[in-house]
Structures are given as C-alpha cells and as structure tokens.
Amino acid sequence: MGKLKYDCTDCVGYCCSIYDRVDVWKKDIKRLGKHFGLTPDEAKEKFTRIVDGHRALKRKSDLIFEETCIFLNQTTRLCSIYDARPDTCREWPVHSGNRCVYYDILKFERKQQDDPTFVPVVEIKVLVDADEED
Prior knowledge:
4 strands
C-alpha cells in the first residue's frame, strides 16, 4: 500500500458517526470479549444490537453528530478500542485506495471556509425505492 492521504487524528470521526450501523460478526464479538475480559455472549449483550436484521455495535449520543459508535472517544474523536475494533473498521478506507473521502471533504471545507476548525456535518441516508415498499 502506498502512502496514506488522510490522517485520522485530524478528523472528527465521520466513519464512526454518519452510518446507522457498524456491522460485527462472531470473530469481532470474540475479539471485543477478549479485549474487555468478557465471554463472547457477554460482549454481544453489552456492546451490540440488531439493526435491520444485522448485528451491529451499539451507538451513543454524540457532541457533533446525533449519534456515534459507542467506542468513539468524544474528546479525542478516535477509537477507544483501536486494537480490538471490528473488521468493518479495520478495512476502512482500503476500498477507497489510500484516500478517505470524508477526510478529503473535511480538508476541502476547512480550506473553503478559511477555518482550520470548521466541521461540515455529513449524513448518509439510505432511501428506500417506492417500488420496494409494495
């Protein structure tokens, strides 16, 4: 992999906040349990929920966005369980090459606003096709 063109330490945690769920699988739950000294069943109960038929990390109220992943540190805006994070998070943003589109938006808007602290609020919404509701 080439040089990364983003810096998570200079971001507000978009990837942790703008999606309604962070999917997890059995191995993720097992990793969380090990990290916290819990059984997989205890970790599943404590840290996950079902969203649209998928097992996902629970969410909490956020200072910038409406909600965020329960493991996003509100002060540093970094993952509080980085070494135990789910595979979904480990893969980000590899599918985007060496770039993070949210970091690009953040840097672009800060330059446009001439404000190094500006935070554009981004939201991802899934629109249901009217034909699918029938």
